[in-house]
Design a protein that fits this description.
The complex is a heterodimer. Chain A is built from no helices and 11 strands. Chain A starts with a strand and ends with a strand. Helices cover 0% and strands 45% of the residues of chain B. In chain B, a hairpin with a 2-residue loop joins strand 5 and strand 6. The termini of chain B are far apart. At the A-B interface, strand 5, strand 6 and strand 10 of A face strand 3, strand 7 and strand 8 of B.
Chain lengths: 121, 105
């Protein structure tokens, strides 16, 4: 059974940092990509970042480029999102989502339940 | 930048057909994917690559894509289909439409 479990959310002050984790099971990073997607309370989905399985540059939304960094630990079956210089507008549920392909250009066929990040002073 | 346009809401009578559109410049040459999201839940993939249904998704859900509009069609709408629906494409990065709230009357 495919599972993705996010952790690491919480309350942080503007300008602060947080690292999210996504632990996966039921598939391997060799066969499927994993991305981060967020959703501000009451708003729509916003793609955040995708890990490039082809060893090329990772992909980021313009809204987080230069502040967020995606990384992977294959041995731990984990994907991470390091979030720095956090802003109020980063407040959202953060989902990790499995891509149907080992490619940035893909659909997302399995999702975690999300972890809430609240940026507030 | 590439924009995806969805109607804010669509209403459909119980048992009738709902059509949710996703507009974008020459979207017909892209692969479009659709997600259903119910309150308090993670999104669920209902259509991928324009017209393919994942395992477990009812045949009542179908998709099409041509020209400047992709469409998700829900036939014989049920109360359980009430949800937000999002389209998604790749254009040098992943993009989601703004979402459409479907109400079954």
């Amino acid at each position: 059974e495919v599972q993705l479990v996010e952790s690491g959310g919480g309350v942080v002050r503007p300008g602060g940092s947080l690292r999210l984790s996504c632990t996966v099971s039921g598939f391997t990073f060799d066969d499927n990509g994993v991305n981060w997607v967020r959703q501000a309370p009451g708003k729509g989905l916003e793609w955040v970042s995708g890990f490039n399985w082809n060893d090329g540059p990772n992909a980021y939304a313009d809204s987080v480029k230069g502040r967020f960094t995606i990384s992977r630990d294959k041995a731990r079956n984990a994907l991470y999102l390091q979030m720095n210089s956090l802003r109020d507008e980063d407040t959202a549920f953060y989902y990790c989502a499995r891509a149907g392909l080992a490619s940035l250009d893909s659909w997302f066929d399995s999702w975690g339940q999300g972890t809430l990040v609240t940026v507030s002073s | 930048s590439y924009d995806l346009t969805q109607p804010l809401s669509v209403s459909v009578a119980l048992g009738q057909t709902a059509r949710i559109t996703c507009g974008g410049d020459k979207i017909g040459i892209k692969n479009v994917h659709w997600y259903q999201q119910k309150p308090g839940q993670a999104p669920l993939l209902v259509i991928y690559r324009n017209n393919n249904r994942p395992s477990g998704i009812p045949e009542r859900f179908s998709g099409s894509n041509s020209g400047n509009t992709a469409t998700l069609t829900i036939s014989r709408a049920q109360v359980g289909d009430e949800a937000d629906y999002y389209c998604q494409v790749w254009d040098s990065r992943t993009l989601f439409g703004g979402g459409t709230k479907v109400t079954v009357l």
